[in-house]
């Protein structure tokens, strides 16, 4: 949503509270819109931070639930590829 409206993600920090992972974003308006890919939307700039693998596992659970509602086709195939990528990152 932010990237499509001209915002750049300056920094992102993940944190855990009550057993759930959250993302805290610092965004700045830059006027340059772009279409983020699925991995950018799900992981942002969190890679390398403590808890990143657990954060990816949580995101992957949500993505798998979304995937169950999709009919066969290009979007479902793209989501399947994204699920596999998140599974790799969940094992970091």
From TrEMBL:
Gene Ontology terms describing biological process: methylation
Domain of life of the native organism: Bacteria
Annotated keywords: Methyltransferase, Transferase
One Gene Ontology MF term: methyltransferase activity
Protein name (Swiss-Prot/TrEMBL): SAM-dependent methyltransferase
Organism, as annotated: Metapseudomonas otitidis
């Amino acid at each position: 949503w932010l990237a499509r409206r001209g915002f750049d993600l300056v920094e992102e920090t993940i944190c855990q509270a009550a057993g759930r992972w959250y993302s805290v974003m610092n965004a700045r308006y830059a006027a340059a819109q772009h279409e983020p890919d699925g991995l950018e939307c799900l992981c942002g700039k969190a890679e390398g931070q403590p808890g990143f693998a657990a954060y990816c596992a949580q995101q992957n659970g949500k993505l798998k639930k979304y995937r169950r509602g999709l009919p066969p086709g290009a979007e479902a195939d793209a989501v399947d590829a994204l699920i596999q990528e998140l599974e790799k990152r969940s094992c970091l």
